[in-house]
Write a structure and sequence with these properties.
With 251 residues, the chain is of the alpha/beta class. It contains 11 helices and 9 strands.
Length: 251
């Protein structure tokens, strides 16, 4: 089919328990897109020095698997983007992020419009817990996403844009070990405004995993949030290690 039109970048660290549902949904959306447009979708899984079978599973699905050892989520995303061959880039997480079947079709249709810079998507948690997130995903989390996406117009959850614009933005900020996605969404909005373009968010939500909320105790979750409340906190790897790279040991 030649060079892919769209490249989806998925960072993954020890995701053997969670990545299959993500890839099942991605491959379904890939099939819909390639049938609709006769263009290709490349799935790039960046294996972040996993010690389990994450890379093997991704290879089974026909993904382009890249090895990347540095534990820095922004750098992991950037490494995948650097290897991506598509004209359009998209990013989603590995842990059971279920994308709608028309995701790539929508990305294609949006980015074929010169006035569209890119966008993100809304989210729907796989489990909804109580107000503060004792179990599953809390209503406060949902409210935060509503404010950022619908009221502030930021793209989150699943980012997409042209690769040339991603490169002009210098990708994700590698000085941040957390909240790099929020910071990227803010800059996307700024770049769109400077270029007299707009962000268009996907209409259908991505279903996201709430496993970190379920594994963390109330005190662990809010202690981690408190440590990361500003950029200085998010630049300290010690503040985010257990949330990003040791999450299954929080039980």
């Amino acid at each position: 089919m030649g060079r892919p039109k769209i490249s989806l970048v998925i960072p993954a660290y020890n995701e053997e328990k969670y990545i299959r549902p993500t890839l099942d949904a991605v491959m379904q959306a890939k099939q819909v897109y390639e049938t609709t447009f006769s263009e290709g979708v490349e799935v790039v899984v960046v294996d972040n020095d996993s010690t389990d079978t994450t890379a093997m599973i991704a290879q089974e699905y026909g993904c382009n698997v890249i090895d990347f050892a540095q534990h820095n989520i922004a750098a992991v995303r950037n490494a995948g983007a650097a290897q991506a061959q598509g004209e359009y880039l998209a990013f989603v997480d590995a842990d059971a992020s279920i994308i709608p079947e028309d995701t790539f079709v929508s990305i294609h249709n949006n980015l074929e419009q010169p006035e569209v810079f890119g966008g993100g998507s809304r989210m729907r948690p796989d489990k909804l817990g109580c107000l503060c997130g004792f179990f599953g995903f809390g209503l406060l989390d949902l409210l935060t996403y509503y404010v950022l996406i619908d009221l502030q117009g930021l793209g989150l959850v699943l980012f997409y844009l042209r690769k040339k614009d991603f490169e002009e933005m210098n990708g994700f900020d590698e000085t941040l070990y957390a909240f790099e996605d929020g910071e990227f969404g803010i800059r996307m909005k700024q770049y769109a405004q400077v270029n007299h373009q707009r962000l268009v968010h996907l209409k259908k939500p991505v279903i996201v995993s709430t496993r970190k909320n379920q594994l963390c105790s109330f005190s662990q979750m809010w202690r981690s949030y408190f440590k990361l409340y500003n950029k200085d906190g998010a630049r300290d790897m010690n503040n985010v290690y257990e949330m990003l790279y040791d999450v299954d040991h929080l039980r």
